[in-house]
Specification:
This protein has helices at 2-19, 36-47, 133-139, 167-170, 175-178, 200-208, 213-216, 312-316, 323-349, 365-378, 380-383, and strands spanning 52-56, 65-71, 74-80, 86-90, 104-106, 109-111, 118-120, 125-127, 146-152, 155-159, 187-196, 240-246, 270-276, 280-284, 288-298, 301-310. The strands form 3 sheets. Strands 1-10-9-4-3-2-5 form a 7-stranded antiparallel β-sheet, with no helix packed on it. The longest helix is centred in the C-terminal third of the chain and has 27 residues, at 323-349. The protein folds into 2 domains: 2-49 and 171-383, Naphthalene 1,2-dioxygenase Alpha Subunit, Chain A, domain 1 (Alpha-Beta Complex), CATH 3.90.380.10; 52-152, Rieske [2Fe-2S] iron-sulphur domain (Rieske Iron-sulfur Protein, 3-layer Sandwich). The chain is an alpha+beta fold. Helix 1 packs across helix 10. The protein is globular. Bound molecules: FE2/S2 (inorganic) cluster (FES) and fe (ii) ion. The site of FE2/S2 (inorganic) cluster has 8 residues, from loops.
């Protein structure tokens, strides 16, 4: 009961910040990063209801390639079928509910690690050893529950929400912004998972703002950003936000390859940085794409799926430059390490008694967009009836 009162107080505070003009807004109260009840609400209202990105499609090319994830408390997996279709299923065995698959990999059939019930990669139950013959006949018709899955420009999104509007319609206004880059053709060269000790929202907020770049990343990406040239969309959208920024000519990564004929003028040095709420973030540059998608494990722990992809002309030009990818990977590992240090420290300091939120800079405008999104989705009264 006490928790309920605390959560509704937090929701009111967030809603007040969401309603204030961007330039008068403050950061969120520190308790939103430390309340179990608030986290439970996030799992139910965000992660079990919105479209969640689980990775790039080109990482699951071959039949049997799979990846796993959790949507709120629901474990799921996506697997490429023999017919080349990617499908998602509940990752819970139909016998005594053991998780079936772990991590990522390739598996032609799915064998439960508990009593070896076996499933095809179309979700059908193929074998249930030592079960009564009569029951077997009935089980033959069983399938793992299917989860909605859509591909949008190379991204795999899944949702438990049967009523959610399609990804394409939710991202309709982002489409013309990213389409000149043709990111669906970018080639995945690095992908891996990490676990960081922080609240997932601290990581989202950190990613969305360029305010910290010249400070935290002054030895890496922060060197290349003329911060004042950062731009935000005029209109706010319910499902995503983004900024565009320019990297100067000295940038190691971020400029169009000479064989790139799609982008012109300043676009050849411009990157788009969308955040698809709640937890999918990427930098789309003329030459590369780097992304994070988050799977909160608990209040202070988050699994991060991280990846780098290259524009096709960059990838083709690599034949004689084998160290390009490993150098780039090392570079972005440094950037990630710089952020890790910050967001893990923030998780500690936001739990302190005297922690209090301060005003946001105009460069943190997307944090305000995120607060508006959270306020809408987490307030059940306003959420009900809206799939946007
Ligand atoms: S729980 Fe899967 S086979 Fe028993
Ligand atoms: Fe950063």
């Amino acid at each position: 009961m006490k928790e309920d009162i605390r959560t509704s107080r937090l929701l009111k505070q967030i809603s007040k910040i969401a309603k204030s003009p961007v330039l008068e807004a403050s950061a969120m109260p520190p308790q939103v990063y430390h309340s179990e009840d608030f986290f439970k609400l996030e799992k139910e209202q965000l992660f079990a209801r919105d479209w969640i990105c689980v990775g790039r499609e080109d990482n699951t090319r071959a039949p049997g390639d799979f990846l796993t994830w959790k949507l709120g408390d629901q474990p799921i997996f996506a697997i490429r079928g023999e017919d080349s279709t990617l499908r998602a299923f509940s990752n819970v065995c139909l016998h005594r509910m053991m998780p079936l698959l772990e991590g990522t990999g390739n598996s032609k059939t799915i064998v439960c690690p508990y009593h070896a019930w076996t499933y095809g990669n179309d979700g059908s139950l193929r074998n249930a050893p030592l079960i009564e013959k009569k029951v077997q006949a009935h089980l033959k018709r069983k399938r793992l529950p299917r989860i909605r899955l859509e591909i949008w420009k190379g991204w795999i999104y899944v949702t438990l929400n049967k009523d959610a509007k399609s990804v394409a319609s939710q991202l309709e206004k982002l489409e013309p912004v990213v389409s000149p880059y043709q990111m669906e053709n970018y080639v995945s060269v690095v992908h891996r998972d990490y676990t960081w000790q922080t609240n997932w929202k601290l990581l989202v907020e950190n990613f969305m703002e360029g305010y910290h770049l010249p400070v935290v990343h002054n030895k890496t990406v922060g060197r290349w950003f003329p911060s004042k040239k950062t731009k935000f969309p005029r209109q706010r959208c319910n499902s995503f936000t983004y900024q565009t920024f320019i990297k100067d000519e000295t940038a190691l990564y971020g400029g169009a390859h000479k064989k790139n004929k799609k982008l012109r003028g300043i676009q050849r040095h411009t990157s788009i940085m969308p955040t698809i709420f709640p937890s999918h973030m990427y930098v789309l540059a003329p030459d590369h794409l780097w992304y994070l998608t988050l799977n909160p494990i608990n209040l202070g722990e988050v699994k991060i799926r991280f990846g780098l992809s290259l524009a096709p002309e960059v990838n083709q030009s690599l034949k004689n430059n084998s160290s390009f990818v490993s150098d780039m990977d090392d570079f972005f590992e440094k950037v990630n390490a710089e952020d890790k240090k910050i967001v893990e420290a923030l998780f500690e300091s936001t739990s302190s008694l005297l922690a209090a939120p301060g005003p946001l800079s105009w460069l943190e405008r997307e944090i305000h967009d995120f607060i508006v999104y959270l306020s809408k989705r987490l307030n059940r009264r306003t959420f009900e009836g809206s799939n946007q």
